[in-house]
Specification:
It is a single chain. The chain is α/β, with parallel strands linked by helices. The protein has a single domain, classed as Metallo-dependent phosphatases (Purple Acid Phosphatase, chain A, domain 2), CATH 3.60.21.10. It contains three helices and eleven strands. The strands form two sheets. A six-stranded mixed β-sheet has the order 3-2-1-9-10-11, covered by helices on one side. The longest helix has 14 residues. The radius of gyration is 15 Å and the shape is globular.
Length: 185
């Protein structure tokens, strides 16, 4: 299955719309959101076209297509307005013999790994910096931020299909692709 992975929309109606356009273009039947959907947070400037109510209106009709984990900016009030679960701290996705541990990244990250076997994959957002690297015996993946990219990166997302993780900018241009089925990279 083709899965679109995104993080850190932070209430930007402009970039949420661009993300949904990417989902249509990618023909991805499911989307995994790695948290920080509605609120921009106290450490971030307001993103372009900050309009959380518009983001809610765009995402709720897709409730059957969205998996989501809680970011550090999610609160119970967010769950009251979103029609898909947003309060789980993590999601486990099997990839052959490997397991993908998907989380936001504010609790579990490269410096505080969750319980994982060698060869398993940590997928998180939070840093707003895209990544696809092997660290020790694990892949560390991050789709970057849809709305507030950092570290010189561009707004973007990732696609996961058949064990291939592809980082793309918001307009769909791929700039890094890795085969997750090989810990050798």
């Amino acid at each position: 299955m083709r899965l679109l992975i995104a993080s850190d929309i932070h209430g930007s109606a402009y970039y949420c719309r661009k993300l949904l356009e990417a989902g249509e273009r990618e023909e991805a039947p499911r989307m995994l959101l790695l948290g920080d959907i509605l609120y921009h947070g106290p450490r971030n400037d307001l993103p372009k076209d900050y309009a959380p109510k518009d983001v809610i209106a765009m995402l709720n009709p897709l409730k059957e297509e969205i998996y989501c984990v809680r970011g550090n900016c999610e609160a119970e009030v967010d769950q009251m307005v979103l029609e898909f679960p947003v309060m789980a701290d993590y999601c486990l996705l099997p990839l052959g013999e490997q397991m993908i541990y998907a989380t936001h990244g504010h609790i579990y990250n490269e410096n505080n790994l969750p319980p994982m076997k060698d060869g398993d994959i940590l997928l998180h957002g939070h840093t707003h910096v895209p990544r696809a690297d092997i660290v020790g015996t694990h892949w560390i993946l991050n789709p970057g931020s849809v709305a507030i990219p950092k570290g010189g990166s561009r707004p973007g997302y990732a696609i996961l299909q058949d064990g291939i993780f592809t980082l793309k900018d918001i307009d769909g241009s791929a700039y890094k692709e890795v085969d997750l089925t090989s810990i050798m990279g």
